[in-house]
Amino acid sequence: MAKATSWSKPVTKALRAEGVRVRDIDTAATPGFKGDKKAGEALLADRAEVLSDLQEKLYANGRSGDTRSVLLVLQGMDTAGKGGIVRHVIGSVDPQGVDHAAFGVPTAEERKHHYLWRIRKKLPRGGQIGVFDRSHYEDVLVVRVHDLVAPDVWGKRYDEINKFERKLVDDGTTILKVAMFVSLDEQKKRLQQRLDRPDKYWKFNPGDIDERAFWPQYQEAYQAVLDRTDTEYAPWYVLPCDHKWYARLAVTELLIDALQSIKLDWPPADFDIDEQKKRLAKA
Ligand code: AMP
Ligand code: MG
């Protein structure tokens, strides 16, 4: 069995966004982790159980009226593996405790509203782990890269997002934001698979090939996100994703860390335990 000591430093330190240059990210690296794929997968099996127990505690508290929650924001280019994180990491916890939301091209209805309108509607309730597959950050990423609104409009959004997240944190949500990066080559391989394998056709979107031409502009837009919205209350983690096993293990550890930081106990009984035991004995 792989040991937790396979980490040479805590994942929260190994992946912190502070000072990261997006263009220099080694997407094939496994920061902070000393083992190989086999060790990583073995450790993940253990750690998924730890995550699941912590999540149950959060959920139990939510059922008892606790309003605290966790929000995991997943941002990344197509094929970075956001869906895999949802299936393999979030999939290891009880689905009743997960508020999952994916954000695609805004609908006609969504376009009538402020860009945070659709986000607010999907925020996690007390006791839940919210997972955003894409997020409000699209409004300073794809929107910036493709001039979907004027620069003075998207330019104001960084500060606005910081304020929005500050309020969420003050209201009891622990936010962790994960920026997922694959190399241009790895993306090509993954898109190729989507064209070669019938079980992957459904993920293929011809537009993903066009987006490859905008890679430098996306890197610049991601850099601005990290520079302007990495805060101490809602930190960004930069996740190299060429190795899926590493990405999944690292996000599991990040969630464990976030849940442990909430310092949860099991909610106390709201009934008289002895009395109920006596009643049960006679029932
Ligand atoms: P997928 O996650 O593969 O289903 O793709 C969703 C698509 O929606 C991506 O191409 C995103 O860039 C796009 N998208 C998400 N949010 C926005 C937004 N606010 N404005 C424009 N496009 C968006
Ligand atoms: Mg896609």
SSE string, helix = H, strand = E?
HHEHEHHEHHHEHHHEHH
Name the overall outline. Answer: globular
For the largest beta sheet, what order do the strands appear in spatially?
A: 2-3-1-4-5
Bound molecules: adenosine monophosphate, magnesium ion
Q: Can you lay out the helices and strands and say which pair or pack?
A:
Blueprint: H1 11-14, H2 37-63, E1 69-76, H3 82-88, E2 98-102, H4 108-111, H5 117-120, E3 129-133, H6 142-145, H7 151-154, H8 157-170, E4 173-181, H9 184-196, H10 206-211, H11 215-229, E5 236-240, H12 244-262, H13 273-282
Helix pairs in contact: 2-12
The structure holds adenosine monophosphate and magnesium ion.
Magnesium ion (MG) binds at residues 78, 205, 208.
Please describe what this structure looks like.
With 283 residues, the protein is α/β, with parallel strands linked by helices. The chain is 46% helix and 11% strand. It contains 13 helices and five strands. It has helices at 11-14, 37-63, 82-88, 108-111, 117-120, 142-145, 151-154, 157-170, 184-196, 206-211, 215-229, 244-262, 273-282; strands at 69-76, 98-102, 129-133, 173-181, 236-240. The chain has a five-stranded parallel β-sheet with strand order 2-3-1-4-5, with helices on both faces. It is globular and about 75 Å long. The termini are far apart. The model has no long low-confidence stretch (mean pLDDT 96). Bound molecules: adenosine monophosphate and magnesium ion (MG). The site of magnesium ion has 3 residues, from loops. This is Polyphosphate kinase 2 family protein. It holds the Pfam family PPK2.
